[in-house]
Structures are given as structure tokens and as C-alpha cells.
């Protein structure tokens, strides 16, 4: 990247953060007009948005770690992987989202004042948001990296009881990276909860040194409180 390009990128980021900071100073807890809810993308985020936008913010928060460049990058430890940008919904909001989601967050910030209830009395203290444990998208801890047939991989579950078949399904989340000098082809999968049969899976092709995030829906082998799935990885065997 040329020096002039870096200057433009940095200036754009600073401009976005300055606008978000000005918005945060003017925002305060308020009752939303009918049809809108608090976004709650971070602590103290009382911007009124549609329920769909709030659900998107929660889901993006749950996926934040998988969208950051492993080991950091040009913009430090919060550098996003290719295809994602900082959300910048408020000061210091460095959650990686799609460009469309960042544009929506900026639009919601601009519309914030018009979405508050006109006659709502100013509360003496911020009302505590309703507990989100039962509905917010959650992810488990990453497993340790495992080396297998020319790759390394790790996995964890993603779970949203409100969206996943009443808690019967989870997202299988994998990070897979090549550690060999030739192409690798195989499949990351999940096994049936009770038998050693393949349940779900997704084909993966890696070039030398390439890393990929993989996600697919699979049955929940645990509970709503403690989700789980049975991971499995297999390399394709070429038969001439």
C-alpha cells in the first residue's frame, strides 16, 4: 500500500471515530418510538434501531474474534480479515462487520434523535437492559490447535436459541490453515451426537499457507445452557 493510501485510510478512520464520538456525547437513555429498540451494540448504546438491527449487532459481537486477522495486522490486534471493516457505531467500537453493516450503523446514528419517543420523561437513571442470556448469540471458547494431514485447525460452537430451531441446532465454527507447500482438499464435519456417523460438513480447499473460517449448522449435542457438537476433519483421498 502506498503512503498516500495509508494517509487516506487513517484520515477516514479518524473522521468516522470523531463523528461517532460526537454522537455518543449527545445520546442518552431514552424511550424509543413504537417499532424501535435500543441497539445495545456495546455498554451504554441507546441508539433506537429496528429489532433486526439489534439482532445483527448482537450476532456481530458474537463473531468478532473470528473476523480479526490472526496475529494482528496493519492496524494492530483489531485488524479485520479481508472483507470486513470496523463497525464504528460509537467511540472505540472496533468490531469487524461487513461494509453494509457499518453503513447501516452510521445511518442509525444519524436517525437516532428522530426515533426517540417525543414525550418520554427523562429517566433519573439508565434502565438496565433485559437479560440477554436466553436470546443473545453466544460462542464457546476455541479449542486448542490440532495438526492433521497438512493443516492445523481449531473449532468452537456458536449458539442463538432464538434463531436455531428452539435450541436444537448450533453453528459449528472452524478456523483452518494450511501448513504444507501444496494444495489441501478435505472436509470439516460434525458427527452424529450418539453414533460415529457424519452429521453435517463443508468442503474446504486451501492453497499453501492459506487460512479460512468455516461455518455450518449442526445438531446441538449439549443443552441450551451448555451447547456442544462433535467435530471431525477428513482429508480427501485422490484415487487415480
Keywords:
single chain; 240 residues; alpha+beta; Immunoglobulin-like; 2 domains; five-stranded antiparallel beta sheet; three-stranded antiparallel beta sheet; 3 helices; 20% helix; disordered N terminus
Question: Can you characterise this structure?
Answer:
The structure is a single chain. The chain has 240 residues and is of the alpha+beta class. The protein has two domains: 8-115, no CATH class; 138-235, Immunoglobulin-like. The protein is 20% helix and 27% strand. It contains three helices and twelve strands, in the order αββαββαββββββββ. Strands 5, 6, 7, 8 and 11 form a five-stranded antiparallel beta sheet that branches. Strands 10-9-12 form a three-stranded antiparallel beta sheet, with no helix packed on it. A hairpin with a 6-residue loop joins strand 9 (184-191) and strand 10 (198-206). It is globular and about 65 Å long. The chain starts with a helix and ends in a 5-residue tail after the last strand. Mean pLDDT is 82; it is low at 1-27.
List the helices and strands and how they pair.
Layout: H1 3-26, E1 37-38, E2 48-49, H2 51-62, E3 85-86, E4 96-97, H3 99-110, E5 138-139, E6 146-148, E7 151-159, E8 169-178, E9 184-191, E10 198-206, E11 211-219, E12 230-235
Antiparallel strand pairs: 1-2, 3-4, 5-7, 6-7, 7-8, 8-11, 9-10, 9-12
Amino acid at each position: 500500500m502506498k503512503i498516500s493510501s495509508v494517509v487516506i485510510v487513517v484520515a477516514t478512520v479518524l473522521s468516522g471515530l470523531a463523528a461517532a464520538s460526537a454522537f455518543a456525547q449527545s445520546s442518552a437513555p431514552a424511550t424509543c418510538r413504537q417499532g424501535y429498540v435500543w441497539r445495545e451494540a456495546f455498554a451504554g448504546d441507546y441508539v433506537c434501531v429496528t429489532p433486526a438491527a439489534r439482532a445483527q449487532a448482537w450476532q456481530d459481537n458474537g463473531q468478532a474474534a473470528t473476523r480479526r486477522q490472526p496475529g494482528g495486522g496493519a492496524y494492530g490486534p483489531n485488524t479485520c480479515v479481508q472483507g470486513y471493516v470496523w463497525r464504528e457505531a460509537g467511540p472505540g467500537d472496533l468490531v469487524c462487520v461487513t461494509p453494509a453493516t457499518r453503513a447501516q450503523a452510521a445511518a442509525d446514528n444519524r436517525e437516532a434523535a428522530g426515533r426517540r419517543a417525543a414525550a418520554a420523561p427523562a429517566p433519573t437513571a439508565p434502565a438496565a437492559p433485559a437479560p440477554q442470556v436466553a436470546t443473545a448469540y453466544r460462542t464457546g471458547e476455541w479449542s486448542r490447535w490440532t495438526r492433521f494431514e497438512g493443516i492445523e485447525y481449531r473449532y468452537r460452537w456458536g449458539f442463538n436459541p432464538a434463531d436455531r430451531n428452539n435450541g436444537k441446532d448450533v453453528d459449528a465454527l472452524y478456523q483452518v490453515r494450511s501448513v504444507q507447500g501444496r494444495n489441501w482438499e478435505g472436509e470439516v464435519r460434525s458427527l452424529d451426537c450418539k453414533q460415529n456417523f457424519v452429521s453435517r460438513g463443508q468442503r474446504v480447499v486451501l492453497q499453501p499457507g492459506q487460512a479460512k473460517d468455516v461455518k455450518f449448522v449442526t445438531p446441538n449435542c449439549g443443552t441450551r445452557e451448555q451447547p456442544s457438537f462433535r467435530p471431525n476433519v477428513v482429508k480427501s483421498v485422490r484415487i487415480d
